[in-house]
Amino acid sequence: MRLANIVHLGIKELRGLGRNTMLLVLVLYAFSLSIYMGSKAMPETLNRAPIAIVDEDQSALSARITNAFYLPYFMPPRLISQPEMDLRMDAGLDTFALDIPPGFQRDLLAGRSPTIQLNVDATRMSQAFSGGGYVQSIVSGEVEEFLARHRTAGRLPVELDLRARFNPELDEAWFGAINELIEAITMLAVILTGAALIREREHGTVEHLLVMPVTAFEIMAGKIWSMGAVVLAATAFSLFVVVETLLAVPIEGSRALFMLGAGLDILAMTCLGLFLATVAGSMPQFALLTMMVLMPLQLLSGGVTPRENMPEIIQAIMSAAPNTHFVILSQAVLFRGAGLAVVWPQLAALAVISATLFAFSLSRFRQFLR
């Protein structure tokens, strides 16, 4: 009877979710369009940055500098006049504006040190941060080659043979797709389970459950397996259809092993979502609590920046978070083709954390029902 109660209570939750249009739209968006857009917007290197050049020298060297900016790092340079430079920067049309002064080539050949002005729109933070170095490197390279009268390649006493493993083309979109998928799993597992309990409280159906011959364990288990099944099914769809098919991200390892890790992470996060729902008094309070919890979890789990770059105390604290181990497992399995012999510590940690969160959430849920 206990198993039957859990199954029927879970089916009740699925029916309630089916009538909630906004949550269904959120699930579809988080596991499809959000992952696709996040992957395409992931590259941190300079890409198609708009640049304008004021060529007041009109020399062979200034022409070489102008022709050195090309795709994919920069858009084809737009030649403008001096009065247009500030106007275009103010309008946000150009990220970089390079002003080559008159007599630049003549002064350079005479042994003087002429100055080129580079204006940068620092409001475009990602492009401005790395783009200035790109521009400086390009201009310096063209000037050195012009003075040497030929293109030179520096010879080092040691040659570096660079071999990029697991991502030979250094495509940031591969990393972005998996990272967005992990964030979607973490977010939806918390939101769906918490919203299910908040919805029952707001509709007054919690009292109906209390007069039924069911226990707090059965009610909680019904919510966890139903919402977890929805997130797990959406994860499988996103991995096979969006990540592998639409984004063409190669999966090196076992998909079943990844889904096992995802199931343990979902179990932990659904328990966390249920706990937050018992603390919150309404849906707005639950939303605020979710933001306060999910933001640190996602930023410090190692999915955005490597854990090795964080202070040791943060690494120690985040080792108690389930998505920290899930990020390690996902990257090892999907990118490096790791097997069970490599990721079993992460699976064991997820199992222990899930069991702990389940016991803690069940205790809190019983107090909530009283």
Written account of the structure:
The chain is mostly helical and 370 residues long. It folds into two domains: 2-42 and 169-369, no CATH class; 51-148, 3-Layer(aba) Sandwich (abc type-2 transporter like fold). The protein has 14 helices and four strands. The chain has a four-stranded mixed beta sheet with strand order 2-1-3-4, sandwiched between helices. Helix 2 runs antiparallel to helix 7 (172-203) and helix 10 crosses helix 11. The chain is elongated and about 95 Å long. The model has no long low-confidence stretch (mean pLDDT 88).
CA(first)-CA(last) distance: 23 Å
Uncertain spans:
none
| Number of structural domains | 2
Largest sheet: 4 strands, mixed
User: Would you count the extended β strands for me?
Assistant: 4
The total count of helices amounts to 14
Radius of gyration: 28 Å
- Report the portion of residues in β strands: under 5%
Q: What is the structure about, briefly put?
A:
The chain is mostly helical.
Topology diagram in text:
Elements: H1 2-18, H2 21-40, E1 51-55, H3 60-67, E2 78-79, H4 82-90, E3 96-100, H5 104-109, E4 117-120, H6 125-148, H7 172-203, H8 206-210, H9 216-246, H10 255-279, H11 283-300, H12 312-318, H13 322-334, H14 340-369
Parallel strand pairs: 1-2, 1-3
Antiparallel strand pairs: 3-4
Helix pairs in contact: 1-9, 2-7, 2-9, 7-9, 7-10, 7-11, 7-13, 9-10, 10-11, 10-13, 10-14, 13-14
Labels describing this entry:
370 residues, 4-stranded mixed beta sheet, mainly alpha, 4 strands, abc type-2 transporter like fold
